[in-house]
Amino acid sequence: MDQLLVLAADPAAWAALATLVAMEVVLGIDNLIFISILTNKLPEHQRSRGRRIGIALALVLRLALLGTIAIIVRLTAPLFEAFGQDFSWRDLILIAGGLFLVWKATTEIHQSVDPDAAPHLLVGKRAEIGFASAIVQILLLDLVFSLDSIITAVGMTEHIPIMVIAVIVAVVTMLLAADPLARFIHANPTIVMLALGFLLMIGTTLIADGFGVHVPRGYVYAAMAFSAFVEALNMFARRAQRKRAQAAAPHSSS
């Protein structure tokens, strides 16, 4: 309690909290996009529950990792060397998570663009293991994103209460945005392809980071924002075309 009172009276602590909250929310976007796309493949009555479970797991993992800060710090220590590059447990987790993300996004894109896809092959098993499979996949990516999130938090402040508050605020924001974002993605099929492209880029960035090639997140999110802006223009253009077509329809019929 005394530490909280001291931090509350420290302007630097408030600045660190605001910065860390913003960073955690931005990092949570990656996690939320994956959860939204994955849960949209579930039966409609399971989607909201799947999103809430996925986000709850993200909060549990982040808070659990905060409780093991000493172990987290050691995860960045070199474990072995290969090809002149030191690898730590963090690097291996990021590489594995990035590969999984690239594989998952590539699979989803292939299913979307392959005219000869055979969804009937999945019928019969999907109802039995679909929800559990989705939760397992969300849990795996939650682990990767949570590790990245907590390591970022450790690098920005040494105060555990600030980290806890920032993580909780970020996860609550994810929880509030989950259903609207998922509905928006579901209602706009072209957004799905854009989001999968984002996941490919994020996965590639995680792999590069694991191999010691750090790509500034600012560049990644700037590219994502520009792509989203272009897609928004496309959506407005399609809406205008539909309105013009509807307005011209009565004249053509007469």
Structural class: mainly alpha
Q: Radius of gyration over alpha carbons?
A: 21 Å
Tell me the number of strands.
2
Main β-sheet: number of strands, strand sense, barrel status? 2 strands, antiparallel
Cα shape: globular
The tally of structural domains comes to 1
Lateral strand order in the biggest sheet? 1-2
Element order: H for helix, E for strand:
HHHHEEHHHHH
Q: How would you describe the overall organization of this protein?
A:
By secondary structure, the chain is mainly alpha-helical. The protein has one domain. It is 82% helix and 2% strand. The protein has a two-stranded antiparallel ribbon. The radius of gyration is 21 Å and the shape is globular. The N and C termini lie far apart (77 Å). About 4% of the residues have low confidence.
Give me some keywords for this one.
single chain, 254 residues, mainly alpha, 82% helix, 2% strand, globular
Write the layout of secondary structure elements.
Elements (H helix, E strand, L loop, with lengths): L1 H7 L2 H29 L4 H23 L2 H6 L5 E3 L2 E3 L1 H25 L12 H31 L3 H28 L1 H22 L6 H37 L1
Antiparallel strand pairs: 1-2
Helix pairs in contact: 2-3, 2-6, 2-7, 2-8, 3-6, 3-7, 5-6, 5-8, 7-8, 8-9
In brief, what are we looking at here?
This protein has 254 residues and is an all-alpha fold.
